[in-house]
Amino acid sequence: MILNKKNKIGSGIIVEGSGTNLWVDFHKVSKDVFIQFPCRTEPEFFCKFKEFKNKIIPGFVSYPELIKVDLEYTDTIGGDANYSWVKRDTIEVLENISDRSLISIAKKQMGIDLRNKTPIDCGDFIRLDFYKSNTVLFITFFQG
Q: pLDDT tens for residues 48-103?
């Protein structure tokens, strides 16, 4: 059985009988949910997906995945980033945040109140140019 990011359905804390909290990843394979413990190579059967989806599992607390986002605000010359000055920051946001919400949070965090052009999604990062200011904001994603 192969557990990977495609069949991962979340992370959470399992409270064992001894009262210890364990951080685990949950994976859905066919109609079953398996637990992947951080220090073990073999996954363990946890429950049926129907039970997991309906949240009738005692001792389970789910937490949303957080990702770190690197913000870089600098000037441009001829449309290219110049870096004669740069302002950097890092924020944590929910993994499933929309681009529009992320842009709004990033602009607020960096203190930018300018109107932006259409964002350019480059896969790992979003480039955000601004009208009448010759500046650019790079929003770069990375798992943290």
A: 776 665 555 555 555 556 688 999 999 999 999 999 999 999 988 877 778 898 99
CB atoms within 10 A of CB 72: 18
Q: What is the torsional sign of CA 139, 91, 65, 3?
A: positive
Q: Could you give the count of Cα atoms lying within 13 Å of 87 in the half-sphere of its Cβ?
A: 11
With H, G, I as helix, E, B as strand and everything else as coil, classify residue 108.
Answer: helix
pTM: predicted TM-score of the whole model, two decimal places: 0.58
User: Is residue 24 helix, strand or coil?
Assistant: strand
What whole-number distance in Å separates Cα of residue 13 and Cα of residue 126?
32
Cα 88 to Cα 46, 57, 91, 137, distances in angstroms:
42, 42, 10, 10
What is the edge-to-edge ordering of all strands in the sheet holding 66-77? 80-94, 66-77, 135-142, 125-129, 120-121
**Paired tokens of 48:** 């049926």
What is the 3-state composition of the chain as percent helix, strand, coil, each rounded to the nearest 5? 10, 50, 35
Residue 11: count other Cβ atoms within 10 Å of its Cβ: 15
- Residue 20, burial from CB neighbour count under 10 angstroms (0-12, 13-18, 19+): exposed
Q: Whole-angstrom Cα distance, residue 49 to residue 11?
A: 14
